[in-house]
Amino acid sequence: MSTAAKLLAQKQRLLKQLESNPGPNERDEIERLLEKIETALSLLDQQDAARPGDE
Description:
Blueprint: H1 3-19, H2 24-50
């Protein structure tokens, strides 16, 4: 499984946890982790865009 696929799977799990109405502390932690995942995915997209000829 690629790094992007792992991050997307983790993001999906966290979003499902948010749907279950967690407490405020857990919600904050989930949102923090989601931000980290979004940053990592963004960096991966930038790396892919910077590689010439990989299309």
